[in-house]
Design brief:
Layout (H helix, E strand, L loop, with lengths): L10 E12 L2 E11 L6 E2 H6 L7 H13 L2 H12 L5 H20 L11 E12 L19 E15 L5 E3 L5 E5 L3 H14 L7 E6 L3 H10 L4 E4 L1 H15 L3 H16 L3 H12 L5 H12 L6 H6 L7 H15 L8 H15 L3 H5 L9
Parallel strand pairs: 4-8, 8-9
Antiparallel strand pairs: 1-2, 2-3, 4-5, 5-6, 5-7
């Protein structure tokens, strides 16, 4: 590489050695260090080669992929077995934490697999707990009997498109359209990130935008503030669970409760919520129990999101299974294995890499520009 001319006031320190891991194994580089002031501070050769830490881009991509799939120790073992690269698990961990922040920034900018208008664009949002080290849980209230938190909630958005239905009129998710965005930030911050990601993927060009969620208040607040144009649909299976709970609260006999639950599930499936509510009030009278009233309030609160007959006639999805399975596949399979406890930065880094890996075209897009090389 030609010698870089010095800037005014800049100093050069020659022949500084550094061992770099490439896809072929360790390589020793001898390069000059440029000390500020001036725009060329640091190692000019490192920047020219696109080094990420002490890794070439090819090696960083390889290690990042294994870190997204496997615990760090298993990742190191896999690299040695398949590529003959001897890497300490702590090196892989440090690289993952280095890649995480720029990876999350790139995910928000990830374009849709097909930059064309689509009939239906879906946003589905959910959350799940990730086990954390004790220091990350101080002051947080949990659901257990002691009231102490053992996990922190990570939010996940699944974005996908639909262009057709099957022979029976059931919606078909477009192959290779699903992308994910995950974060530990609060819902007030996550909503705008999800909107930015949806716009990058082509939401504004869709004929219809549909927002699927369960009954969590923060999920619908994101819909209200960030996706006001979307049709909001309460996941039918969450609604069904509340109908079952309503039947159990209304009838002591388990068999009777089950029979009424089946009937009431069919009623909400056919958008007959008013008939269901009338039957419940006829059974429970003017003074229902607290549990019954709670379930009635839930159904009333979500009335506008439960017109399932119309949704089915339109050929739309009525379940949030995509994001729920995403919580298991994207988050659970890597971050919730037995014995794992995370710091928030460590979990965020792996989550970002995993979202990129499991998103349509996400991994290639992550490495398509030099942004990561500047990490």
């Amino acid at each position: 590489m030609p010698e870089v001319p010095l800037q005014p006031g800049q100093r050069r320190y020659r022949d500084r050695d550094c061992e770099v891991l490439s896809i072929f194994g360790p390589v020793t580089l001898c390069r000059d260090y440029y000390h500020p002031p001036g725009p060329e501070g640091g190692f000019a050769l490192d920047r020219a080669l696109g080094l990420i830490g002490n890794f070439t881009p090819g090696a960083a991509r390889m290690l990042g992929r294994t870190a997204a799939q496997l615990p760090y120790l298993e990742s190191a073992q896999q690299l040695e077995a398949l590529a003959g690269l001897k890497v300490d698990s702590s090196q892989i961990q440090r690289l993952a934490q280095l890649l995480g922040p720029p990876a999350q920034e790139r995910l928000v900018q990830l374009p849709g697999p097909a930059p064309k208008p689509v009939p239906q664009f879906y946003i589905s949002v959910d959350g799940t707990g990730v086990p954390m080290i004790r220091a990350e849980l101080e002051g947080r209230v949990g659901r257990g009997p002691e009231g102490k938190a053992k996990t922190r909630e990570v939010k996940l958005a699944a974005l996908f498109t639909q262009t057709t239905v099957d022979a029976e009129g059931h919606p078909l998710r477009e192959a290779q359209s699903t992308t994910y965005l995950g974060s530990f930030v609060c819902s007030e911050q996550f909503g705008p990130l999800a909107r930015q990601a949806a716009l990058a993927r082509g939401m504004a060009q869709a004929a219809k935008v549909i927002y699927l969620g369960d009954g969590a208040a923060w999920v619908w607040e994101i819909a209200r503030t960030c996706f006001p144009q979307a049709v909001q649909i309460l996941d039918y299976y969450h609604a069904s669970e509340h109908v079952v709970a309503l039947a159990k609260a209304s009838y002591v006999d388990a068999g009777t409760a089950n029979n009424w639950a089946i009937r009431w599930q069919s009623l909400i499936y056919d958008s007959e919520l008013d008939l269901l509510l009338a039957e419940v009030r006829q059974i429970t009278g003017v003074a229902p129990s607290e549990q019954v009233q709670g379930e009635l309030d839930y159904l009333e609160r979500n009335r506008a999101r439960m017109d399932y007959r119309r949704y089915r006639q339109q050929g739309w999805f009525i379940g949030s299974g995509v994001v729920e399975s995403g919580c298991k596949r994207v988050i659970g399979q890597r971050l919730k294995q037995s014995g794992m406890f995370w710091t928030q930065p460590g979990a965020t880094a792996v989550l970002s890499l995993r979202c990129a890996l499991l998103s349509a075209q996400g991994w290639d897009y992550l490495w398509s520009q030099p942004l990561l090389s500047a990490a």
